[in-house]
Amino acid sequence: MLPLDIAMHRFNRLRLAALMAPKALVSMTLVTMALGATACHPLASKVAGTPEAATSEVTGTPEAATSEVAGTPEAGAPEAGELGRGKLETAYQIRAIASGLDHPWGMDWLPDGSLLITERPGHVVHWRNGSLRPIDGVPPVLAKGQGGLLDIAIHPQFAENRLVYFTYAAGTPNANRTQVARATLEDDRLTGWEVIFSVSQNKPGTQHFGARLLWLPDNTLLVSIGDGGNYPLELDGALIRQQAQNTNSHLGKVLRLNADGSIPADNPTIGSQGISALWTYGHRNIQGLAYDALNQQVWATEHGARGGDELNRLESGENYGWPLVSHSREYPADRLVSSPQSQPGLVDPQVVWTPSIAPSGLVVYGGETFPGWQGDIFAGALVNKEVRRIEITPTGQINEAEAIAIGQRVRDVGQGPDGNLYVLTDEDNGQLLVITPNN
Ligand SMILES: [Ca+2]
Prior knowledge:
- With 439 residues, the chain is mostly beta strands.
- The protein is built from five helices and 27 strands.
- The strands form seven sheets. It has a five-stranded antiparallel β-sheet.
- β4 and β5 (123-128) form a beta hairpin.
- The protein starts with 5 loop residues before the first helix and ends with a strand.
- The site of calcium ion has 6 residues, from loops.
């Protein structure tokens, strides 16, 4: 399948802009923040004494929150038969259900329906019954630049083992690496923090840690690792981004681990003497990883440089091209990173976003709450402050169907056990938003 070409993408952006015109105001729900008085977590000071302050102070509240996209596809849109499934009739509303989060990065649900959220400066909070409580026990992390406490993933058998997994940046601003750790959740505390995996080498600078986590159905764990940083940052005398093609480095890869951090025996062989744990390679900085249970497919979004953001279908052992092929341009100079932009043996992206939307959290919707959205991919966007809904047609074509305007930088998107979509916003006063049907 060919990638969505740039011209088509620009056309779609115009179409999306039309779809995004606000048709109703968001209904905001004030959240009562019930925090323990003993907490030393930053949340405590933010909301102490004035429980509603965190919500009422919100600036840049979600706009265009209710979108009614009924009607016939506009001229030039894909054939109705391709869209199928009546998806253009889904309406929704967006509410803020928690505020006062300090640059939240990742979230995952516990079996009781409550939610654990990471904050990049190095904190974990527990959202439950409308309140936020701090979770202690996180060691210091390198909270600088793009680094910090990053993703979180609850073990698939959490009910039996109470294990929670994290990615984070460790080290100093000039020598650091992404690590994977796990810990046991006991009430409001993490115990037994254990580093189960460290990236192969230190890197300089505080860019491109990657660090999304994704459990596969066989209980192995995918971890995305960034290429280390932008031009002209170097490592070992060459641009650090070239590590994405170095099969003796974890930089610029997706790794596959067992739950204890060991390497699965059935991982692919990448490179004649490649380092262990590699699952795919040739990535710049994957910020979204999602599993499509219906099609048993892994999807990933990665940032380009000045355009060239990508949505990829990931397959074990494949090379996704960075920096040999890319639609990106260099930051300091207006020239392409690579020419050509496609090459035999390197997997082309399914969607290229130029200009960049800065894709973040990713989820494939599989719930009953939005029947019209089943099987669709939802991609957060930091720069565009929205969530993109991407349809996969029955013939496997990719169609960017809709932009759900959020009005804040979107860091993560997930599907709750109630079938609603949840969104974390990357702000000083970050929010947890819920997207529900507009019935
Ligand atoms: Ca690529």
